[in-house]
Amino acid sequence: MGDKVIEAVRELLPVFRERAQDAEDARRVPEESMKALQEAGVFRLLQPARFGGYEAEPVTFYTAIRLIASACGSTGWVASVVGVHPWQLALFPAQAQDDVWGEDPHTRMSSSYAPTGRATQVEGGYRLSGRWSFSSGCDHASWVLLGGIVTDAEGNRVDFKTFLLPIADYTIDDVWDTIGLRGTGSNDIVVDDVFVPAYRSLSFMDTSRCRCPGQDANPAPLYRLPFGSVFSYTITTPIIGMATGAYQAHLDYTKERIRVSYGAKAAEDPFAQVRIGEAASEIDAAWFQLEHHMTELMRLARAEEKMPIPLRLAIRRDQVRGTGRAITAVDKLFENSGGRALRVGTPIQRFWRDAHAGRVHAINDPERALAMYGAGELGLPVQDAMV
Length: 387
Known about the structure:
Number of helices: 11
Number of domains: 3
CATH architecture of the largest domain: Up-down Bundle
Helix content: 40-55%
CATH class of the largest domain: Mainly Alpha
Largest sheet: 8 strands, mixed
CATH topology of the largest domain: Butyryl-CoA Dehydrogenase, subunit A, domain 3
Strand content: 15-25%
Radius of gyration: 21 Å
Shape: globular
Number of strands: 10
């Protein structure tokens, strides 16, 4: 089914390009685009088979996301983060999965993992309150995944968890008004002292060990992968897609462009050709490392082998470098495009803004990821929920 999804996505790309400005203007992905993504099967790629999902290879999912983001950065970003949530829900206890998908397997979730709220342990579950920012695609979801530090009655920290809440338990505060990724609708989620049953929570300690309660119901190798590896590339892949879209837009533009100041065709400028070569290499390097790492993770999962920490640290290293390489490529292309590329509505400036907006996501902090890798290479202990 994965190949059919990719084929369906390719057919949608012209429509997503046409709607890119509409997404920016509305500050959310058009409902028609979300419906098209659903019908194409994008949100089923990482969903368990028992709910009609495809349990596809991670590289298949990332390939679809890269394509979507190459047409519209905001649509690709939302497709990525919303599309990875079925994979995470599959790690929750079976009852939580039934709550979300029991009546409608197309039910979608948004998320915000930074533990900015309060989670207090009580009998049978947790009391949750607070405000969570940057919940991309939340207007298209009826459940949300929220990160929280769990404390006991005395205020002592006891765990770091993801909590699953239905839309009746939270409100969306429309605050998203940005210069990049404008169409993602990454608004705030507000929760006012609601009860979350214990089975609707998932500990990051479990995801770090790759031993989660949902694996009993979903034994496929896909669900034995490290959360930190899968989710971090969920953020980097759309940025690689934006760089890919910027690259094609730049080629199309440069082939027709005349550099009036020099009275020559831009395509014949050797310096422009060098920048194109450099940008292409950066994009390819980012993608090749993603493919290599995800292939290796799936090999280990199929063999039921442990996910070694050195490999997981290398994945985070190359994930942040992949984001950096994509940004370098976009910058070179933007610098090579001349003043007319600054006009509102041109794809190159939109990709440039969207890619830089995606770069500031916390998972793309290069110093943190590279320091973790260096510490591991030096034999020092590394503890992080996103490894």
